[in-house]
Structures
1.
Amino acid sequence: MDSKTALLKKYKRRQRLVTVLPFVALAVLFAVLCLTVQAKGYRLPMYLKILLNEGVVLAIVATGATFIYTLGSFDISLGASTLFSATVGVMVYNATGNFGLMLLAIFGVAIGCSLLSSVLASVFHIPVFVTTVAMMSVLSAVAAQIITANGGALGGISIPAEVVRPFDVMWFKILVLTVFFAVCMFLFDYTKLGRRQKFLGGNPVCAKLTGIDLNKYAILAFIMAGIGVGIGAFLTLVYTPSVTTGTAGSIGMNILVAIVFGGMPISGGPRSKIYAAVVGGFSYIILNNILKILIDSNAGYGISQIVSAVFFLAVVYVTGMNYRSQLLPR
Amino acid sequence: MKAPILQMKNIHKRFSSTIALDGVDLDAFPGEICGLIGENGSGKSTISSIAAGMQKADEGEMFFRGEPWSPVSMIDALEKGIGMIVQESGTISGISVAENLFLAEVKKFRKGPVVDREEMNRQADLALDAIGASDIRGNMPMSALDFQARKLVEIAKVVMKDPDVLVVDETSTALSHEGRNILYDVMRRFREEDKAVLFISHDLDEIMDVCDTLTVLRDGNLIRTFSKEEFNPDAIRMSMIGRELKGDYYRSDFIPSSLDEIALKGEDLSIPGELDGVDLTLRKGEIVGIGGLSHCGMHTLGKVLFGAIRPESGRVVTGDGSEIRDEGSSMKHNIGYVAKDRDTESLNLTASIRDNIAIAGLDRYAVSGFLLTAGNEKKYVDKQIADLSIKCSDRDQAVQQLSGGNKQKVVFGKWIGRGSDILILDCPTRGVDIGVKRDMYRLMSDMKKQGKAILIISEELPELIGMSDRLIIMKDGRITKEFTRSESLSDADVINYMI
Amino acid sequence: MKKYLAMILAMVMVLALAACGSAAPAASEQAPAGDSGKTVKIGVLVADVSGEEALGFANYYRNYIQSNYNVEFSYTEQLADAAAEKAAIEKFAAQGYDAIISFSASDRATQLQTCIDNGLYYAVASGMLDDAQYEQFKTSEYFVGQIGPSMDTEYEAGYAMGKYFADQGAKKIAMYGAFIPNPMHVFRAAGVLAGIGATYGGASEKDAIVGQIFADQGIDLKKVESKDVELAGYFQGFGDTTFDELFACIGAQPDAFLSVGMATTFFTQNLNDAGIAFSDIDSFTSANGEAMADGKLVYLAGKYSSSIGPVFAAVLNAVNGTPVRDDEGNAISLSQDYLVATDADSFQKYAAADQGDSPIFSKEVLDTIIGDVSYADFSAAVAADRG
């Protein structure tokens, strides 16, 4: 019996370790970054500002997307819908000169695209993932058409920088991130919405037999993701008041990486964590920056990508460790 | 006495926090069917799976026909003489029966670059004929077969390799009457051929009927081996659970009773090929049993009554006349449903006990209907863990780490916790040991006393007869007979209406 | 427990970030880097890291300039969008860089604004801002200037190429639009149409043709009308059907195949085999030299790698406190034309001048425009040395 309780303790300790690990990784990476920046004689405060700017859009869009990932589903169109929302926002501002209408357009389009993906999927009984693939192609093509047709020689479209410049300050971005994260955390951990989504992600058949309607929760998840995309698109414009066909291009893949770095299983389910996107997103951004500082870009392109890929695999292995050993035969 | 074919000595095995085997010795003798029995988690599946190469022992020695035995895999073990029919389904549904049977050996049928499918199908048919499952053919797609037929394919797959030791792990619970007979015939043939069989089952009656000796395991220890002449249900039960079972196993009364009020009513329910105009009334304070062969439509009926399947025609209404259209409306009217396939339909295995119990009761303990607080939730869940005495390390333990009986208790807790007034139980005691079974029967009796309505769908006649106020028998999607509770009602009376 | 940890971490981040708010103004107080021995650090923004032209440019800065002057160049990775450009500039600022030279064109106005905000000198190389943007920023002290082909130059390069073949008597041509709607390619293609005397959708003016090509995202053959030279085939982009489209064009047996970019990379072999004379706007690489000497490449307009030398000189002057401004005190704005080779000899001359230790803008040439030089001298030097 003693050995049994000891083993149980060991198991629980490991479980706790896996939970805490993403936070520890973030703290360690943050410390390493500060040290590296100091050692190189760079300006740390500026670096922190850059990190926030690079991470905030990713963290917000990925936090919204966590609701989709929790269902065990996947939305590949988030980058394209960020681009498309920002594009429409710019067009609306340039046509009306009205900031409020621009915001309305950005959020309307972002949530609308998301809803369309999920409603199409539920009407035609196809996996949501499939509709998001279609959405991705359509949205990026339409956005590209708008941008190139209107951007002309500039290759991009933009709104006057003064419109969004007041928002390009740290406290505003931190506030937006904090509020959005708090709302998501509340919905995810303290209301039926999040609990039922986690359950759906774990076993949709059982969830159905517990009265949980997959379509309804898929649509709700996509609305949350849409709100995240809307905020992301707005903050993208705040950072650079222009949109090109390449805008937000890397978001789609980075969401996946962020969520995994944050210690959430990619298959969603009961072990999903709302903080994964924020913790993982910033870890990933910090890691990339450390690598870029340490590895001289002149040494060759792609080395830092390889290192971060190795890191990614290591994280997946460690976070999956406990999961695998739980599958006991009887 | 003959020398054992298989000898296992001082076998130890642990899974992270759980000690599954604590120094067990087990022998299998030629011409003998040895039963292995014990509660969930007693170690009976573990010891047999070690013998069959599915996993390795941490300590201990094994000898097969006198030689040291250490198979590297189940396939290796089967090639060398020990075959096992596993509890969980080991077939692949996207391919044909023949391909399943010859999964690793397709190249045997290779003629140049192509596989000779006709020959492969012919060989498969022979293997199926050999166990008496002639209605399954090699060219059938696996996905066209039901649960039972798949099990028979697995049996054929092992038997065609002609092993010296056959391990059968709780396979019979998946089988109907005729399926079981096929399995028993196979086992008897092994005995006649002077080979050994290790047979694991929960069903005491079955195991006493089929086996020559019976070994009882408890908490990873071998408790006792009974010879045929020592077989005595009470003694065996006692050694299984380590204490005497007090009180009655089933309901002690034999008087049918119910309140007048109707709880749930199915009217003219039809689904082509599955249900054919079923009318059924369940009253408050009543336990209604539904029995039949596994394809009689009773499992579908359970889902229809819960709203999980919409009938082609007919409707399901509650006592107050509201129609049940889906699972959501069912839950709104306090109906709960325990599915037959526990691991895939009733539980979220990777989730914790807490998640599984709480999920059905979120609306019950949420503050102002939406805010979920950890305090309320823990109270809600802990009450179920305590009331049902679920054996676990704590509420956050993953359900997949629990034994079958405790898993089923979690499912019960999920529905009882939210105060379900009507429970539809599909095979609620399947794969559950007798200790837990008894707890569940008691629970049903208690709920009946509280005026709750219970519908039990089961393939086990004794429990239906033992528990039901009314017993409804189904065949081919229709109700063929209804019995009222009585002391004189026996299996034999009922079985005629099933087949 | 994990929640507390999350909160603590969030607090740390917030505090650290808040601290940066107060510390930021101190960032730009470093002494300007002079020629007193301190290395001048220049960050280079690039959107292309692998093209022939980009490699030629990088080679010139990293190998030639860096070994002749006390400067250090740091190149970015491939910048995908405006946000990446802005972040790259901010990182250079954080690392104490003095100036930015930009080859990346997602959002030059934001790049410039970011440099101004961070006190970095900024220059556009091998391209130009549009007129409105130039007007907006030309008086900023941090805007050093822009030296390179303007969109007008791109149009002119296309026009010259089209006119060359028309003058040579070509009656039927095919055309490759490269990566339209990339603005550079749109302007060149519009130039080609005008050069062969064609109208597009009835328009013959530059702006009207350009506008329609942007709107169509390509060239619609039905809208092309021409008296003398027939446009028999057109395609653009690079994908699954590209070679089918190429062979269709070849099948039309044109007198010449005109490309506004990349054809020498993609199609040289096929066009040589088909025996069709072709032209491109590219750079003076050895492969192009062979195609001109032994193959069917008959016309090549190209930038030479050291054409970015004057931009460097202007940036260095600004960092060293002797900025070159025009007569009204505005940032430099000088257009550079393409060099055109139509035979192996002229090609070899340009190629030779562009390689190795004696580039067109060699140290000797650059030294005449580094230091205290007048705007007139500077622009004359840029306009002069043309191989």
2.
Amino acid sequence: MQRREFIKLSGATALFLAFGVGTSLHAATSIGARTVVNIMLDGGPDFKHLIVPPFSSDANSYGAAYWRARASIFRTTAGDSAKLRQAYRDNYDEVTFDGVRFGILKSCAWLKNEIRKGNVAVVSNVVASTNRDHYHSKLILESGSLRTGPNTTEVSGWGGRSVGELDANAVAVTRGVRLVCNGEDLSGRKGYDNTRVISNFDSRDMGLYNYDTQADLDSGSRSYKWSVQALMSRSLKSYYQAKANEIPEQSPYRKFIKHEQKLRQFGERVGARLKARPVPSAITALYQGGNTLKSTYFGQQIRNLYDSFVTQDILAMRFASMEYTGWDSHRDQHRKIEPMFSDIFGTSKGLHTLVSHLDAYNKAITNNTVFVISGEFGRQLKSNGDHGTDHGRGNSVLVIGKSVNGGFYGDPFPSDETARLEIKNEDIHGKTSMFQVYARVLNWQQSGLGSQVFDLSNQPVEAGVNLSALLKA
Amino acid sequence: MIDFIAPILAAVMSTSGGSAAVQEQQAITKIIAYAQSSTNPKPTLQDYIAAGVDGVDKNNINAYNHLVDSLEGSDVDSAAERASLKDYFITLKPIDDIVTTEYFSPITVRANISYGGSDIVRYFLENSNSALINATVDGKGVITITSTGNGSGTGSSRLRLIVFTGTDAHNAEFTVTVNTISSESMAFDPLAFTVVSDALWDETAVRKVLYAFAYGGHATDTQIRTWAAMPPQQAIVQMLTFEPKNKLLSPSAYILPNTVSLERLAKFWNTAKYVKSEKKKYFETKPNSWATPSYSWIMAVMSRGLNPFVHRVGLWETNYHMSVSQESGVYPLPMLTYYDTIMQQLRDNRSYEQVMASGAKSAAVAFQYGHNYNSYKNGLFRGNEDFAREYYQLFFGILGNYDHNYHENTTIPNTARALTDMKALWHPIAEGGPERKITFGTAEHYSADIDILKTTVSGYRADVKLDAIATEAIEHAESLNNLPVMIIKHFADDTPSAGTINRARSSWAMMPQKRLLPFLWAYAVSTDFHNPARIKYANSIQRLVTTINLMTIDNDENGRMLYNANWELSKEDIRPFRPVHAVFGHQTGVEASDNGNIFRINYNRSAKSGWTYWQYYDCVKNSSGECPKDSNGNVIGVWEKKWRDKIPTNGAGEYVVEDVARWLWERFIADGGKHYGPLERAHLIALLNGKDLALLLDEQNPLKVYTRADITTNNGIKKLLNDAAVARMDLKSGDLKKRRSADYRVNLAISFIAATPYIYAQEGR
């Protein structure tokens, strides 16, 4: 019997014990345990803008068709080959890797180098949702199920399910907790359960305030009798501790007891660990302005994730959730999304800074962390009349890390697209299920985990693509 | 005047149909003929369209005919002259744009209508309901419109005044809508819901409605009891109205503007005496007054004398349902206009599709989605499909499941073409900022009929098409299924049962004209709303604004902005008019409840930094930044908390701790005592005595945790608590120090309540 089935049978009792007063049954997670970082790019990121075919003067080639179809994005016309060629040269570096010649945005030099090092898998022609509805597509992508309905928010996510199987925790370094983190409700009473989710949006101030009454007693100070903070913090701590045994698991109020317990359990230990390790200045610069990043919000997540890895053993983190919003590039795509790609993939930008400092802290972390970067859908092949692209379906997903067997999985420039490139409303044909990609990443964490988390029946893989080789053993 | 009118007119009368060129000529001739004599047939809307006269629509067709009637045939016999017809109209700004009478009381509207110094020589008045309205024109300067106050009818009356001045035939159109519908006069209809029984309709039930729909409201305890004693059908139409003011829900002696307009309210607060001078900046209405929408909205919710329900709905419409964001380039003034336009539509009791269409036609939405430059020229569409998709999905709840391929390949691309030539130009701040209203044109509009939702709609301009689409969409099967569920999920039920969903859908479907207010009425007093299984988690705005609203005693506190909800919300990374999911809306209650970080911030607000909750006086600080003190060492206050004005006394006029604790719990949690157990009672009694529970029970053991069992079984503890419970609070004491201490203790108790699990969610019963 698998552990999951055992817990299902045990039901609420096991869960209650799992978060009884100050007690955790989670297995120890060491720093450097295999960890998946999911970076959700909300809005439908156009990876076909990040990695492009080289401009070609052969009018019948993919490279020519692509640049004609996308001319308006670069504020030129389809018939002006010279300008199209120049747009390509101005904005992209040309790379050949894994037998594929392509252009990559100049502003994403870190990614380019990681590709050359073989640390990046570009899985093309992937698809999850086959509709073009942001909201529904995100629900499907993050839940990891095509059965998720358009308004079904009360469901578990694939990241949350994975840490349930791993007996670990998911850490959300975002403002809110994304659906992907939702754990499975093994009692079957609710759509999901977030016992194993830790919100860590402010990693340097994670805990609950606790007036140090004992210190007053030890020193003979009488402040604990009149300080308003002393009265209030003692009241609330005492109250929550007593209520933990009163509010039943199925109560809608139980989740607040769990929040209090988690914050109490982790807050002080995390705080103590981080006190001895200041945020590296290069990371601080990412979220404290100074034009290092366009999105200081992403910068703060980098800080939070750095701190989460530094305290990975305390948090029992095996899955982390990040986000970068604003990829719905209906207009002015060139100006809009290139700085965003740069935030993530540029030299000395988000991931580069994070990985560098984690590497310096403990190489086991970078050796055993995989970043999965995807969005709810791709965009149409041909640009619209507003210098942007409208919603499509198929897309690419990037898998990055030292454990990755870098290369192209699936044809990034398939010949069957050539004719469709210039037809409005056409999009990338999804040939590989996104869930197949995620499942392979989870299998790297633990053998067989992918099929425990996803129902992979009828989930296709593009002919000729060997996803089993996506990650090193 | 060319004498070709008669023969062509005869032809017009005898011919129908024909080519476009023939139709155009017939229409022109008809217009000229009508200008010549009003005994000739009136031109129709189609005639004006066919003749290429820009600006005519179903709403102003009569005004155009009156104008043409006042002219001569020679004034309209050239294309240039006909094109300039619209220039005759100017919109005059009345002192009160829209006026609503309440209970049919007479009202007067004044508007300065002097135009170029010319005398008014003639005016024409259209009145859709002359039984209700009298109007006079006083000289050249003032129009006085008075409702008859006879109470003999209901319905809004639209006045259209066309004023002719001087000899240049300049004309002015001046429209005032006088809405004589009081919400009370509208009939309650349970629709497909079942009205909760009188037995279950009690004070707690009333409070739950006020929580869900009005941030707790401002009603007195007496009023709440009065509503609880009334049949729910009667009470609800008093509780929830779309009027700017609701004296029962929000009584006040303050005189506030009678408007739902945030911009007008902001202007009022920017100059109001009771608003602290250093706070007035939050109510400026400059193009870059980014804080104004949010601050004004919260002030509108919290202001005694307005109507918190109206602005609760305003947040739903502009931050959730038809969400746009200042983060996405929607500037403050277009945002205010957006809010005000929608709210006015609701106030006018417009159908819900009209409300949504008014949103779709706004500059704010155009800036948000970027269709303000969409065009159709020379057979080429330039633009994007963003709003073409979201108009259906987000506004109406139509996802395209009726026929996915058709929706993607026909409805959306065609709607994108409908959204052409609706310009809102961006201007720098120094030049006034982005435009606040759309200018709808025809030159770059895709004027052909379009297929959408498997039907065909027409419209010569984008606004006409958007109206037509709304008319179709509101009755679409997907919208009928989804829109009512979206509404009830937002307001009151995170996980409605299948039965609730069915009744909501049936209720919506059975309304011949979909209107939000009667739908909410029926739902708010239904067995579905007052159902123990109903759970609604509070988002940050709902939780904080409700708590702070109920902390507030009067507008003096509001004017001092002692409880700055904006500031507290920002700590949770939540800002009104900057929805966290942009067009997909602001933070939901479920999201907030799942977020440990939000919990942490709220918990620490009470435990560590509860200045918002704890303050009980205000002072004028000296140059050292300190509050000056009197000879007794008391801070010299310019304001002090007056819980004595709110908290009820016992028969002897005393404030008993036990009673105060129970009253506070019901005021802030409103669960009828369901979760007011021994632990809650014990902690509140302790804090109202100025101590925490451990200190109260054993000063030598301040870190001891007391369980329910300790409190309910240990006789010594029970006695200590009971003794503390009967203590009297000095809320009315003449001794300043004692009085302040009592108010402070009440605040501590509130601070505690605001951090319990029960502040985060509401159950139906």
